[in-house]
């Protein structure tokens, strides 16, 4: 239950629905028990009792005599209306019974009506918070988590919590109240019989509770395994071309079937434990009814009152009592089912809260500054950084003046892309500092920092949406004219204008309807439209063919005019005009200068140029 206490704050915006649900559940519980009490007059008529015998309005004699008082009061009023007409009396009693059952079901509907808003509202808010948290968490978090597991948490786990919330409300309000009202009415009929109920129902409840002890663990295994095969599915869809190209379908089929096989085994164990609950609770309930029938029947047929003639318990009251006893079984079974639901939901809540309570290591400091412009330079002051144990950058220093283009080159793994990740604060440095206009980027809000920057990556990341919406990502209020201007600068308008729907053309999943060069030019157009003072290009042309590279390179040169640019380059031919080229090896600068200066040095850069020109 500790996890549900943490989830409970999601109920607060919907507390009025919770209160209305509780109110109508109270009425439902009262009328659920009252529905059996109004059967007594009907039983009296069927047992040939003469309602005309009650000629005076009865007086209330105390709680334990309430059943007698209620029975006589109803019979007295029926006698007043129907007189000696048994048929009319029967009609009145049936109308009374129907009215009570009608009200009971109306209150039941109203209780469920209001809880619907609470359940769906809580479901929506948890999912919204989970998605918000998913976007806020740093990139490092997702190097350790499976994407499919995140999808399982935001999907099935949240849905499980939603169902469990309903179970909890039944557990603490509706069903217990039904049992309490029913037991109160049972006490007014026979204290002795009710004591039997008090003895046997707790024993039954204890036996049922033993079944559910391992449900949380079993449910947790099921949900984790679901996250595993969803992650495998996501990876398969993303790498389908490679899987087919390497004829690896049998390998991935085997991995998926292994995961679903484990899911099947865990699900069977969980469902079999759940399935055991129903027959167990039903048999124990019938056992209680059997004991009551034996003892109650003995009171009706054998035991007598002090006069030696009158039965210890009236037959009509006994049948009413049995109806009330049966009325306890339904909520008792519902409570047992709800307790199982709580245990399953507890596992789901734990997984959801693990994400919601994860503290991001990259957060705005208190009173972080908002920076609106870029004036002088970007400084990397003796920074060191490591992803795991080994340092990727060691005592790295660099100055990027405003309006200049600085290119980072070197072998793969030398730390070039890490610089881009640190400047944009996707990661924080372990040592040293990064400053913009002499202000540490950790003192700036992440939103304003990244607002100063445009990013074009090696992988052209497009979303399954129109060209217009993909380009407008960084400037949602842009007009179509501004979008077209950005496309022209990026050399993308030449193919976009020929598409059937032009700006409304859907690019498909991950831009699958476009070529690599077209996707990259749209990525550049997106950065151009944002119009940031600082541009970061992370190997933006390395994945392109020669013709596409030429078009993209022209687009990049158009975009970098009058901007401060950090260019991470694989193909050295694309950065020869840079104001400064920084050559990196194993996280350190080995040489720097212009293209001509580095060629004259005849060191690492010259060797890299020569290798690429072969």
**How is the largest sheet built, in terms of strand order?**
6-7-8-3-9-10
Tell me the helix content: 55-70%
Span of the ends, CA to CA: 68 Å
Poorly predicted runs of 5 or more residues: none
The helix-and-strand class reads alpha/beta
Q: Determine the strand fraction and express it as a percent band.
A: 5-15%
The CATH architecture assignment of the largest domain turns out to be Up-down Bundle
Q: With helices defined by DSSP (H or I, 4 residues minimum), what is the helix count?
A: 21
Instruction: Write down the CATH topology of the largest domain.
Output: ABC transporter transmembrane region fold
Q: Biggest sheet, in brief?
A: 6 strands, mixed
CATH classification class of the largest domain: Mainly Alpha
Q: Taking Cα atoms only, what radius of gyration do you get, to the nearest Å?
A: 37 Å
Write down the overall geometry.
elongated
* Strands, count: 10
Q: What is the CATH superfamily label of the largest domain?
A: ABC transporter type 1, transmembrane domain
Number of domains: 2
Mean pLDDT: 77
Transmembrane segments: 20-43, 89-111, 171-189, 195-215, 283-301
GO molecular function: ATP binding
Domain ABC transmembrane type-1: 19-344
Protein name: ABC transporter ATP-binding protein
């Amino acid at each position: 239950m500790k996890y549900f206490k943490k989830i409970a704050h999601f109920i607060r915006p919907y507390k009025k629905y919770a209160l209305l649900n509780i109110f109508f559940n109270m009425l439902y519980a009262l009328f659920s028990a009252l529905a059996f009490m109004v059967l007594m007059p009907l039983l009296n008529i069927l047992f040939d009792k003469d309602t005309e015998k009650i000629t005076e309005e009865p007086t209330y004699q105390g709680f334990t005599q309430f059943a007698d008082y209620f029975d006589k009061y109803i019979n007295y009023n029926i006698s007043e209306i129907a007189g000696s007409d048994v048929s009319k009396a029967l009609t009145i009693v049936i109308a009374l019974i129907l009215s009570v059952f009608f009200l009971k079901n109306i209150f039941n509907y109203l209780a469920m009506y209001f809880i619907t808003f609470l359940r769906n509202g809580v479901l929506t808010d948890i999912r919204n918070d989970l998605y918000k948290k998913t976007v806020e968490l740093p990139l490092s978090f997702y190097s350790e988590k499976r994407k499919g597991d995140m999808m399982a948490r935001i999907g099935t786990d949240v849905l499980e919590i939603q169902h469990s919330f309903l179970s909890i409300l039944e557990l603490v309000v509706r069903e217990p109240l039904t049992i309490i009202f029913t037991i109160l009415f049972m006490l007014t009929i026979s204290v002795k019989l009710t004591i039997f109920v008090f003895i046997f129902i707790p024993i039954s409840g204890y036996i049922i509770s033993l079944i559910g002890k391992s449900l949380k663990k079993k449910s947790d295994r099921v949900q984790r395994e679901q996250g595993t095969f969803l992650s495998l599915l996501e990876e398969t869809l993303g790498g389908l071309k490679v899987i087919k190209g390497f004829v690896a379908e049998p390998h991935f089929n085997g991995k998926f079937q292994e995961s679903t096989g484990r899911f099947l085994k865990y699900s069977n164990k969980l469902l079999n434990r759940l399935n055991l609950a129903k027959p167990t609770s039903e048999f124990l309930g019938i056992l209680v009814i059997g004991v009551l029938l034996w003892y109650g029947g003995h009171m009706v047929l054998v035991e007598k009152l002090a006069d030696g003639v009158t039965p210890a318990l009236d037959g009509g009251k006994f049948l009413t009592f049995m109806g009330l006893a049966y009325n306890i079984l339904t909520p008792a079974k519902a409570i047992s089912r709800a307790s199982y639901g709580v245990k399953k939901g507890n596992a789901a809540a734990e997984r959801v809260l693990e994400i919601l309570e994860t503290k991001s290591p990259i957060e705005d400091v208190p009173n972080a500054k908002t920076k609106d412009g870029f004036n002088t330079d970007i400084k990397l002051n003796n920074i060191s950084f490591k992803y795991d144990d080994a340092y990727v950058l060691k005592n790295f220093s660099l100055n990027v003046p405003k309006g200049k283009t600085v290119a980072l080159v070197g072998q793969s793994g030398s730390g070039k892309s890490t610089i881009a990740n640190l400047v944009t604060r996707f990661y924080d440095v372990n040592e040293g500092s990064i400053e913009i206009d002499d202000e540490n980027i950790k003192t700036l809000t992440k939103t304003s920092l990244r607002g100063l920057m445009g990013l074009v990556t090696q992988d052209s990341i497009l979303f399954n949406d129109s060209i217009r919406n993909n380009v407008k990502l960084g400037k949602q209020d842009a007009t179509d004219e501004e979008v077209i201007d950005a496309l022209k600068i990026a050399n993308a308008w030449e193919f976009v204008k020929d598409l059937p729907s032009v700006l409304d053309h859907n690019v498909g999943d991950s831009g699958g309807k476009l070529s690599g060069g077209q996707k990259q030019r749209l990525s550049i157009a997106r950065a151009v439209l944002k119009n940031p003072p600082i541009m970061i290009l992370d190997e933006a042309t390395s994945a392109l063919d020669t013709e596409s590279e030429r078009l993209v390179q022209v687009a990049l040169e158009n975009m970098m005019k009058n901007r401060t640019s950090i260019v991470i380059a694989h193909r050295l031919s694309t950065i020869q005009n840079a104001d400064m080229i920084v050559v990196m090896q194993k996280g350190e600068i080995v040489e720097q200068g212009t293209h001509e200066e580095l060629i004259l040095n005849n060191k690492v850069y010259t060797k890299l140029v020569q290798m690429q020109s072969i």
